[in-house]
Amino acid sequence: EVQLLESGGGLVQPGGSLRLSCAASGFTFSSYAMSWVRQAPGKGLEWVSDISGSGGTTYYADSVKGRFTISRDNSKNTLYLQMNSLRVEDTAEYYCAKAVVIAAPADYWGQGTLVTVSS
Amino acid sequence: DIVMTQSPDSLAVSLGERATINCKSSQSVLYSSNKQNYLAWYQQRPGQPPKLLISWASTRESGVPDRFSGSGSGTDFTLTISSLQAEDVAVYYCQQYYSALWTFGQGTKVEIK
User: Fold this and answer.
1) CA-based nearest residue in chain B for residue A51
2) Is residue B111 within 8 Å of residue B45, measured between CB atoms?
3) Total Cβ atoms within 10 A of residue B80
4) Residue-wise pLDDT tens digits, A28-85
5) Separation of CA A81 from chain center
6) Do B61 and A104 touch (CB under 8 A)?
7) Which of A79, A116, B63, B75 has its CA 20 to 30 A from that of A88?
8) Residues 6+ away with beta carbon under 8 Å from A65
């Protein structure tokens, strides 16, 4: 059974940093692209970043480019999102999601971890 | 970026009746080399993560009831729930994955009338 478990969310001040993790199980992690998608409270879905199975290819939304870094450790079956220079507008539930390749839909999603940026 | 626009923003349908949600992309998501539309539909129930219902515009995922169907090509797509059930109350999103920079529609909230 595919499982994706996010962690690392919490309350952080504007300008601060946070690292999210997503522990994956139930599939061959290194064979699949992974993504982060966020959802501000009461709002819709916003794609944040993608990474290929090897980790060699990454993409970012303009809203986070230069501030967030996606990475993965295939030996630990774990996806990461390093978030720096956080802004109030980054407040959201952050979901990790799995896809066959980047050009494919997200077929499994984690339960999410909440990031709140506030002073 | 490819902009995805859904209509309506919300709709209320009686149990057993048909619900139709439209999605329009700002540019074609039909890939000419393989004739596939890079368009997915997701269901998000309250308090839950999104769930993939339909990929490639019309391919229902395993376990998804056959009352859900997707259609369309190029820039115009439709999700149809043929006979609304109580458990279908949710927000539905379309998404394009034609571009590596995924984009989602704003969502359509489906309620029971």
Assistant:
1) B100
2) no
3) 13
4) 999 999 999 999 999 999 999 999 999 999 999 999 999 999 999 999 999 999 999 9
5) 5
6) no
7) A79
8) none
